[in-house]
Write a structure and sequence with these properties.
single chain; 139 residues
Length: 139
Amino acid sequence: NCLTDFHAMSLTRDKLYSLVRKWHTMISAHVDVKTTDGYVVRLFVIAFTERRPDQVSTNCYAQSAQIRKIRKKMMEIMTKEAGTVQLRELVKKLIPESIGKEITKQTRGIFPLKDVMIRKVKIIKKPKFDITKLMELHG
């Protein structure tokens, strides 16, 4: 038997490159969050602006003040979502991309976003290794 622990997660290169487009603003942010079970996790998020349905101009660039507001909101949501759960639940949140959907919903008033995704997750600091915790994680 082999028991594993969460190490890191990242989007594949081809997926990331398929999202990047001309005439759209790419907004990225990162934040360090401590989960309730003692892990320090660094979350990277990426988002792209979306054209409005009735828009005439070809580009959809966000102003720098809007970008700052969106980035602040992203960090707030990531801290709230990841800081209140254990690492196990955080991984379960990453799979259906629920944090990205929440960011899209919250920032709709500032600027419409699409393809909001957690780009990368790194474990910065682990708590002291405990075999009973690992068994509990898989049990």
